[in-house]
Write a structure and sequence with these properties.
GO terms for molecular function: oxidoreductase activity, acting on the CH-OH group of donors, NAD or NADP as acceptor. Keywords: NADP, Oxidoreductase. Belongs to the aldo/keto reductase family. InterPro entries: AKR, Aldo/ket_reductase_CS, NAD(P)_OxRdtase_dom_sf, NADP_OxRdtase_dom. There is one protein chain. The chain has about 270 residues and is an alpha/beta fold. The protein has a single domain, classed as NADP-dependent oxidoreductase domain (TIM Barrel, Alpha-Beta Barrel). It is built from 10 helices and 10 strands. The chain has an 8-stranded parallel beta sheet with strand order 3-4-5-6-7-8-9-10.
C-alpha cells in the first residue's frame, strides 16, 4: 500500500489514516462518490452489507485504475446475524456483492440487532467471531474487528475466543470522547476507528469549533477530523460533495495541546 500515512494493526497490516465512509450513501450514488474519493487520493473505503451499496462501491473500486492491494476495503457483518454458519454465508455474499477476492477488514456491525439495541447477544457474538477467526485463518480477511462494541462486549470475545479484535469502529467526535472504552482498546492493541467524526454534521455549527477553524485557517470539518487523528483514532468522514471529499483529507496541520484541551471541554452536541 503506497499511502505514507498509516495506522498499523497489531498483526502488522497497514491501513490508510483516513477512510471514506459510505454510510447513508444510496446504492445509486455510491459509484460516483467512491470514484471521487479514489480520484482524490483515498485508498481506504468503508462499507457494509447493511448499507445496501456494496455492489456499486465494489464496482467503483474495480473500475478505478488502481491495484487491488493498494486499496483497503472494509465491510461488515449485518447486526442481526449471530451464528457461525450465517456469518460464513453473509461474508461470502458481501464478497460477491463487492466483486472482490478478499476483504482487508471485516467487522461485526453491532453487538445486537438494531431493533433490539442493548440486548444481550453474547453467545451469538462469540459464534460470529469464531467464524470470522476461521475466515481470517483461511486468508479471506486480512484483519477482523467489531463495531459499536462496549468493553463488556469485547471482553466476552477475549474470554472465549482465540484472536483479539484488531479494530473497534465506534461513534467518536469532539464532545464524545468515550475515554474508558478508548483506554480499554489501547490496552489490548485494538485500533479505534472513529465513525461520524463530524457528528453527522451537527457539530459543524459550533461557534467554538468555527473560531478554532479560523485560527488555523482551515474548515470546521478539518478541525474535527484532525482532532480524531491526534487522539490516535482513525476517522471515517462521509460526504456526498466532491469539494468536501477533497477538503476532508487535507489535514496536514497540528492542533496545539492548549487548543486540544479546549476541544476536549466541549460538550456533546447530540445529547
Amino acid at each position: 500500500m503506497n499511502d505514507e500515512k498509516l495506522f498499523t494493526f497489531y498483526n502488522g497490516v497497514n491501513i490508510p489514516f483516513i477512510g471514506f465512509g459510505t454510510w447513508q450513501i444510496p446504492k445509486e450514488e455510491a459509484y460516483e462518490k467512491v470514484s471521487w474519493a479514489l480520484e482524490h487520493g483515498y485508498r481506504h473505503i468503508d462499507t457494509a452489507y447493511g448499507y445496501g451499496n456494496e455492489e456499486t462501491v465494489g464496482k467503483a473500486i474495480r473500475d478505478f485504475d488502481v491495484k487491488r492491494e493498494d486499496v483497503f476495503v472494509t465491510s461488515k457483518l449485518p447486526a442481526n446475524i449471530k451464528s457461525y454458519d450465517e456469518t460464513i454465508k453473509s461474508f461470502h455474499e458481501s464478497l460477491e456483492n463487492l466483486g472482490l477476492d478478499y476483504l482487508d477488514l471485516y467487522l461485526i456491525h453491532a453487538p445486537w440487532p438494531w431493533e433490539d439495541r442493548g440486548g444481550n447477544y453474547t453467545k451469538g457474538n462469540i459464534q460470529a467471531w469464531k467464524a470470522m477467526e476461521q475466515l481470517y485463518k483461511e486468508g479471506k480477511i486480512r484483519t477482523i474487528g467489531v463495531s459499536n462494541f462496549s468493553i463488556s462486549d469485547i471482553q466476552a470475545l477475549l474470554d472465549h475466543c482465540e484472536i483479539v479484535p484488531m479494530a473497534n469502529q465506534i461513534p467518536y467526535y469532539i464532545g464524545r470522547d468515550q475515554k474508558e472504552l478508548i483506554a480499554f482498546c489501547k490496552e489490548h492493541d485494538i485500533l479505534v476507528e472513529a465513525y461520524s467524526p463530524l457528528a453527522t454534521g451537527e457539530i459543524l455549527n459550533s461557534q467554538q469549533i468555527k473560531e478554532m477553524a479560523d485560527k488555523y485557517n482551515v474548515t470546521p470539518a478539518q478541525i474535527c477530523i484532525r482532532y480524531c487523528l491526534q487522539k490516535d483514532t482513525l476517522p471515517l468522514p462521509k460526504t456526498t460533495h466532491e469539494e468536501r471529499v477533497i477538503e476532508n483529507k487535507q489535514v496536514d496541520f497540528t492542533i496545539s495541546s492548549e487548543d486540544m484541551a479546549i476541544l476536549d471541554a466541549i460538550e456533546d452536541v447530540r445529547k
